[in-house]
Amino acid sequence: MNLDELRCQIDQIDQNLLQLFEQRMEIVKGVAAYKKENNLPIFHKDREDQIIQRISSQAAPENAEGAKVLFSTLMNISKCLQQKEVLDYTLDTLKLLEEIQAGHQQPEHPTVGCQGVVGAYSYLACQKKFPNATITMFDQFEDVFQAVQNKKVDFGILPLENSNAGSVDEVYELMKHHNFYINHTITLKIDHCLAVRPGIKATDIQKVYSHNQALRQCSQFLALHHLPQESYTNTAAAAEFVAKSDLPIAAICSQESAKTHGLQILQQNIQNNDENYTRFMVISKKLYPRPECDTIATSLTISNAVGSLYNLLTKFAVNGVNLTKIESKPIGNKNFDVVFYLDFSGNILEEQSIHLLNELSSELTGFKFLGNYKAD
């Protein structure tokens, strides 16, 4: 038998599989109608486990694992279809729908909270996004979260990740403990400079202060010049500290911070990579749905069972949704569990997005809708 004949047989089998798949989906609709009528849950883990075990035992040994993947995918597709048919909203989804229906409008002259001091990169990001805002500076990232939570400010601006140094772990850790909505993101080009008090020469510098992210972003420059370093709360706060100190020390900060605090710039653009960008998120207590939003942010946890992540990703594929970000952070327990941060294409004003969020909320522990924004 030649290759063309073998391919012809595969085509015929695929056609039969397609017909059987469509028959199965029609029956699934009937199952969904029955569950809806009798108020039964969509997800039935024990039955799914029984089916997978049966399929695995009946398949040839060399095909057992592949058969498990195939039928797990079939059941995931079936659950997606049942969710659409039943439309049994979770409490999280109902809360989200209430926020959407509230129709909150963004203030024209908002109050915004940033961490650090005037001239910090968060401050510059705020000026870029909200030129008419009243800006309040806070000492710590957590202060910004709490100010938003307690309605002291309309918005908070916090750094999420840098294109070279990676995620801002402290912010991600705080995200687990606060309730908020992401309504915007801002991408800012980061150009670091080495700044000292007037009269201090490069050879005089005993130590360089800055935020640990900035120190990582300028690690090559620091190593080349053998400059000791010490982490500080914020780049602009480091500039302020250097300006008030009598010691021969330096700060890595923005040019704006250096000028604000009367520092002399010894060298500009000292970051490792000139393509150096930081992405900030704009958080608020209220949700501000807008038709132009194209990215949904969520966080969730999944079990350590084999195939759990694959099953999760299948949901997005079945719904034709593009995942734009997936990141994991440790929860900090003895099982080494992680929380996943997923961004995907969608708008909460669209029914399809609500259905997907509802499905995730109903099946996953620790699921949290984090916001909907227009990708920068």
UniProtKB/TrEMBL annotation:
Major localization listed first in the record, in broad terms: cytoplasm
Domain of life: Bacteria
Residues in Prephenate dehydratase domain copies: 111-285
Protein name: Bifunctional chorismate mutase/prephenate dehydratase
SUPFAM superfamilies: ACT-like, Chorismate mutase II, Periplasmic binding protein-like II
Alphabetical list of PANTHER family matching this protein: PREPHENATE DEHYDRATASE P PROTEIN (PTHR21022), PREPHENATE DEHYDRATASE-RELATED (PTHR21022:SF19)
EC number(s) stated in the UniProt entry for this protein: 4.2.1.51
Regions annotated as coiled coil: none
Pfam families: CM_2, PDT
Record function comment: Catalyzes the Claisen rearrangement of chorismate to prephenate and the decarboxylation/dehydration of prephenate to phenylpyruvate.
Domain ACT, chain residue ranges per copy: 297-376
NCBIfam families per UniProt: CM_mono_grmpos (TIGR01805)
Alphabetical keyword list: Amino-acid biosynthesis, Aromatic amino acid biosynthesis, Cytoplasm, Isomerase, Lyase, Multifunctional enzyme, Phenylalanine biosynthesis
Organism (species): Clostridium facile
Pathway the protein contributes to: Metabolic intermediate biosynthesis; prephenate biosynthesis; prephenate from chorismate: step 1/1; Amino-acid biosynthesis; L-phenylalanine biosynthesis; phenylpyruvate from prephenate: step 1/1
Reactions this protein catalyses: prephenate + H(+) = 3-phenylpyruvate + CO2 + H2O; chorismate = prephenate
Domain annotation Chorismate mutase: ranges: 1-86
MF GO annotations: chorismate mutase activity
Protein's cellular compartments: Cytoplasm
